[in-house]
Every structure is written in structure tokens, then in C-alpha cells.
Amino acid sequence: MGHPTYILAGGGTGGHLYPGLAVARELRELRPEAVIVMACSDRTIDAKVLADEPYAVVAQPVRPLPRGGRGWGGFLKAWAASHRLARDMLRDLKPAAVLGLGGFAAGPLVTRAGRAGVRTGLLNPDAVPGVANRWIARHAEAIFTQFETTRAHFGRARDKVRAVGCPIRREFAAADRAQALSQFGLRPDRRTLLVCGGSLGAASINAAVAALLGHLEPLAGAWQVLHITGSSSMKAVDGEADGKLHVRRMEYCHEMPLAYAAADLALGRAGANTVAELAATGTPAVLMPYPHHKDMHQKLNAAALVECGAAVLVDDRISPAENVASLRAAMLGLMDDAGRLAEMASAAKSLGAGDAAAEVARWLADV
């Protein structure tokens, strides 16, 4: 029967690719002979995420929709070029299935594949789909979501929705804490605050944390910090005086399962992947949803964690001074209350990790 080919298309922020990589691994379990092609954007972050993965990578020139009156010429040129590339890939590779990973980089291949009668699915882990996913959905046979509440946002395509959870790698539930602490140069006799600045750098979180470290000095004997800054904010926080508080900074982390294994409390955004990983690892969290989305979907992503007591929500007020005050109020009490942290961890675990990656892979492989 030859080697079946599966194309997973998406990217542009890094976050779209991680669920796809989890699905790809499950596909390899089902179909060891499968050829898997990652069709990403040509942004640097996608190349970084995929650098160590054993899959063929095709970078598309596709661009997101312009936000204003400018940029339409470049957008249309890149869109046409990406459609030609998608046409050629479908003709040459003859894929058994195509999975859109969400966002603008999923568009050309999913629409082309859907029109060509290829088995086509779409991942939408966020609570509210973006413009690109709502448009792409009409060309997909199945839409895989993390939340049942997302169904209503797909309008006429709502009947295609399958609420399976967010695909994450199995390693998140099985990573070893001792190995994690050793990997990151952290001390085993201290609790760890994991700060996730995002793959592209969450500037307001990173700035607030840089200013917050001084307030955490009284806890230096009991806590340490693992700060994943993201590329765009590395220079802004690197070199801050750490005092007695042990702080380990890194620009990018390929081993996020180990980062969570080391964590006793996490601080970060409320992206779809993050909330799924927190539940899978049972990690208590302080979440600062991204403040510039019109639909504020990250607040909705976080709702289940907040409602069950696994996470505390803090509004990102953008102002570093205001954010420091809010985070200090939310975090100091938590970090000094082992019983509350244990209750939050238990609440997070109660949500369950699910088996979304395997379920999506089985659908793609038609098993």
C-alpha cells in the first residue's frame, strides 16, 4: 500500500504547531511507515519549534490578514504563492489526510484539500475561533476543539465540531521532577516558580517579573525561579540583579514537560496549549490573559481552571507598576501557603489530560 502521507498545516506563532506535533507522534504510533509533512509559515519561530523534529518541513510564504489599509498587495501575492504551493503539494504528495493546525498558515492547504476531496480536519484549541479558523472551517470535514462551548462559535459548521480536548504530548504527564531540576540547574530543596513568557516573548509579563523579583527576596530560602522569556524579551530581563533569589533564565525551552515537572507554581498567559498543559501536569497557576484580543478568548480558555480552583486570574493592565502590584498581591500569599498550592494542584489534575492527540490521529488515519 506504500507509505501514507499526512500534511499538518499551520504556524506563525509557534503555539499552533505544538498540538500538531502531539498528533504527529500519535500518527507515527498508528502508522510507523507514514510520511509526515509540516507545512508551516516562514517565520523564524516556526523553524525553531520544528528544528529537532523528524518530519519534512515546508515553509509557506502566506501572511496574516492586514489589519489596516496597507499591506494588501503583499498579502495577496503571498496568498497566491501559497495556494500554488498547496496545489503542487497535493498533486505530488497525494496525502491521505490534511490537518489544519489553525491560523493563517493553515488556510491554503486546508481549503485546497477540502475542495479536492482529501480527508481534511481542523484543530481549534482556543475557546473562541479566530477569523482564519472560522473561514477555514467550511472546508474541513471535522473540527477538533478543546471546549464544548466552542461549538456555538462555528455557526453553520457547528455540526462538524468534536470536543476532544487539546492535543499535548504524553511526556507532560510522565516527566520526572528530579531529572527536570537537574536539567535546568535548579535546587531540589526549593520550590520552583515557572514563568512562561511565551515563545515570542510576553513583554508585559516579563517586565512585571523583572520588577517583581525584589518582592520575592523574602522567599529566597524556599523558592527559585525558572523564567522562559521568549526571544523578543530576552535582552529586557537578562542581567537583572537576582540577589539571594536563584533565577534561571532561558530564551526558549524545547523540553516544556520537564519545565512543568520542576514547577510548583506557574505564571503565564492563558493560551490553549498552556491551560491544557497545566491540567495534564496538575500545576497551580497565576494566569494573565493576553489583553489585546477583542474577544478576550484567553479568559475563556482559563475559565475551567479558575472555576475549579486550579488557577488565579490576574488582569494584564499593561502598566508594569500596576502589574507588579497585582501579581504581588496574588502570588505572595500563594507561595507562602503549601496547603493552598496542594489543593490547586489536585483541582488541576481533576480536569484530566484526556487523549485528544490519539483521537485526532485515529480520525486522520481513519482507524
Question: Which shape, going by the Cα principal axes?
Answer: globular
Helical residue percent?
40-55%
Q: Quick one: biggest sheet?
A: 7 strands, parallel
* Total separate domains: 2
Task: Describe the protein's architecture and organization.
This protein has 367 residues and is of the alpha/beta class. It has 2 domains: 5-167, Glycogen Phosphorylase B (Rossmann fold), CATH 3.40.50; 171-350, Rossmann fold. The protein is 41% helix and 17% strand. The strands form 2 sheets. The protein has a 7-stranded parallel sheet, sandwiched between helices. Strands 10-9-8-11-12-13 form a 6-stranded parallel sheet, with helices on both faces. Helix 4 links the parallel strand 4 and strand 5. Helix 3 (72-93) packs across helix 4. It is globular, with a radius of gyration of 21 Å.
